[in-house]
Each structure stands twice: as structure tokens, then as C-alpha cells.
Amino acid sequence: MTIDSKLGSIIDRFDFPGILGDCREVKTGHINITYRLRFALPDGATRDYILQRINNYVFKKPWEVMENVQLVTEHIRQSMTRQGIDPKNRVLRVVPVKGGGNMVEDGDGGYWRAYDYIRHAKTTDRVESPAQFRQIGAAFGQFQSMLSDFPIEKLHDTIPHFHDTRKRVGDFERSVQLDVAHRAAGVREDIEFIRSRGEVMCRIVDMLNAGDIPLRVTHNDTKINNVMLDADTGEALCVIDLDTVMPGSALYDFGDAIRYGASTAAEDETDLERVALDMDLFAAFSEGFIASTAARLTPVELENLPVGALVMTYENALRFLADYLDGDTYYKIDYPAHNLDRARCQCKLLTDMEAKRDGMYTTVAALCRRFT
User: Fold this and answer.
1) pLDDT digits (tens, 9 = 90+) for 117-164
2) Does the chain have fewer CB atoms within 10 Å around its N or its C terminus?
3) What kind of fold does domain 130-371 have according to CATH?
4) What is the end-to-end Cα distance of the chain in Å, rounded?
5) Beta strand ranges found along 57-139 (DSSP E)
6) Is residue 309 helix, strand or coil?
């Protein structure tokens, strides 16, 4: 095994045990540069770790990201221990730097961190069954529950206004007016779709501002591949990718998971007839999530969970369309109309959610009665 001397010097600064035996780049993921390390221990066993270079173009203050991660993972570990749950392999553990700290600066403006590797686990990019999605719902619900007593004032707001729908709507209007890519004329119906729902989709922001629902620790990227599943049993083990953890609403985490996991199609599907909300998957995730959070979330939060699905689908449609109007400056695209296709797919999903709104509320209400 040959590794770059610079990478080797970074590895040496972490408090890893044993002797490095293998180092391989992990190609999955689009934000950070990731390596899997394997160390040989004196007793002949091996132990694996994840090493990552934090993308400090996306995260301008990586030290704040890591402070959030450290605080949240330690809180979860303590919560599990109090409940008699062994936290090993069930919560990320930050590997300390020799001499103290949780990050290594490489001298070229790069910041590195390391985690214990979650053993005997896998992830999935598409929901394979309602039972699997129920497990994922339980994992994100447990994440909320374990952090329900976390002092929110300790968290950094690492991406300001991330889910500020009113600001997002205002930014969208500026994109329409500026029309820098000269595309607005061809998407007037799409623009009007977004405009017609702007006010009602600010409901979560309004509830937060009015104090009707509390600020909580939110994951903010509740895609299904951010839950590690036991490779044999499929049981949810650990929530990962905590870079976007910051203050927000539990409704956002619930809603984004539904938007991504309960859709019958990929988020850039061009055949809109294939795009719909799968109510069986909605019910499965809701069951797992509510079973884990019913004793922790407020009645107002629980009854408004479907709002999260509508708002997060709307927000993604708005952001994709704005980026298309801006000339595709934010999201990576594979072809010129990629962001437009993404926006239209999300608009179709939102339309189907609106048609199934009563069913969503009925399902959530029944589960709330069952678990409270």
C-alpha cells in the first residue's frame, strides 16, 4: 500500500490505534473527500475508520460544523447510555486529534476529521420495502427523540436561512426578475405554479416565529442513504452525515424524508405520469417516526407533520427552478434542462400530495392516537 506523503502526515495526527494497513478512497458522496482506513491492532484484530476532508467551499466555517457534530453525537451517546442502549456502532464517534481537538488543518486551507467506521452495515439509495422505510423513519425519529432536550442555543447556524421559506420565495422572485440566463419566458407556467403557493408554504416559518412550535435540533438531509442499516437484519443502526445539523423544525426532517423516500420516482424523472406519493410508504415512515417521537414532540408538531412534506417538496421545486433561471450555478447538472426537469418533477409530486392531503392527515392522526 502506497499513500501520498501529505495524506500520511494527516493520518498520523489522529489518535488511531495500531498500524495503518489499508487506505482506500470512497467514491460515494458528492460533498466531502472520503477515505476508509484499516488499522492492524496488536492482538491481530483490525479496526476501520472514515477519514474526510470537509468541503469548506460549502461549509465556510468547518470548525462550527464540527462543534455541532461533537455536541450532538455526545448528547446522543449519553441519552442512549441512560436508556440502557449500547451506543457502540449506533452513533458516530469523532476520533480525537493527538494533543486535543477534532480536526486537522493541512496547511493548504483544508480541514480533516475522522469517525469510527459503522461495522457490518449498509445504506440504500432507493426504498426497497415499507418495512425498510419504517426502520428509517424510526431512526430519524429516534434522532429527534434523543436530542429533544438538547440546549438549542449551543448549536451554530452553519447555513443561515436554510429553510427560511419567505427568504427562499424572495430569492426566487429576484431570479425571475433578473432572468440572467434568459429562460423565464419559456417557463411561465412553472413560475406561476411556484408563485401561487408561496404564502401558504410559509406555514412552518410562521409557526416557528409565533412560538407555536419549538426550535429543535434538525438533521436537514434526511435522505434514506443517511441511515446505516444492519447488513443482515436490515435494522436501522445509525444516522450519519451530520454536517447540516443545526436549529430548525422537526417538520422539515419528516417532510424531506417523505419527499425523497415516498415518491414513486426519482427526483429528476421526466415522465411525470410516474411521479406520485406512495401512501403505503408514507404510512410506513410515519409509523416509525411517530412511534419514536410521540412522547417528545408537541401535539401541534405531530398533527402538522404532513405540512413538512408539502413545504419541503415545494422548497425543492422552488430551488431547482430558481437555479435553472440563474443558469445552473448551484446544483450539478447532466444536461441543460436538468434543473427544470427536477423542478417539474417536484411540482408534480407536490400536486399529488395536495390531492392526498386528507389521507396524509388521517394517517398521522391515527398513528398519534395509537402511540400517545
Assistant:
1) 999 999 999 999 999 999 999 999 999 999 999 999 999 998 888 999
2) N
3) Aminoglycoside 3'-phosphotransferase; Chain: A, domain 2 (3.90.1200)
4) 55
5) 104-105, 111-116, 121-122
6) helix
